[in-house]
Amino acid sequence: MGSTAIVAVVGDEEIVVANCGDSKAVLSRGGAAVPLSSDHKPDRPDEFERIERLGGTVVNWNGHRVLGVLATSRSIGDRQLNPYVIAKPEVTVNKREAGDEFIILASDGLWDVISNDLACHVVRKCLDGRIIFRKRSQQMNDNQYRTMNAATVLTELAMARGSKDNISVIVVNLKD
Fold this sequence. Notes:
Layout: E1 5-10, E2 14-20, E3 24-29, E4 32-35, H1 45-53, E5 58-60, E6 64-66, E7 90-95, E8 100-106, H2 108-111, H3 116-127, H4 142-160, E9 169-173
Antiparallel strand pairs: 1-2, 2-7, 3-4, 3-8, 5-6, 8-9
Helix pairs in contact: 3-4
InterPro entries: PP2C, PPM-type-like_dom_sf, PPM-type_phosphatase-like_dom
Protein name: PPM-type phosphatase domain-containing protein
Pfam family, one: PP2C
């Protein structure tokens, strides 16, 4: 069994994101949702062409799947599907701007049922203190609590919307 990965390195001037699979990073910039990564789905034109060039096939069986099996074209650990499914991440570099608010890093269990815009809207309300899910721990300051609360609220919302996949969410507050 394989896994996907999404990593963000946040510097003073740039945000570097490395993605392998269908986890995703979304930046809220000036109130707008800005995708920082692109899912590695087998029907994405460049991924489809790469798989077929290597002699593999993409089968549309309950969604597009590599060799009719895997719904991602890149992952870590699915060696039985080499060379069609690769573990090479795609890396993007984005300049930081004054309006950058936060980044959401999450697995497809979130993104399959919640849009980029809705996720950013929910996180913004959590960071503003307008949505509170659980009481704050004594060990956390207000910003830490609100950031953790935002990730929890997104996870709970994805479960309530019927997500059938694992749900992992990290929120990075860029204003903190």
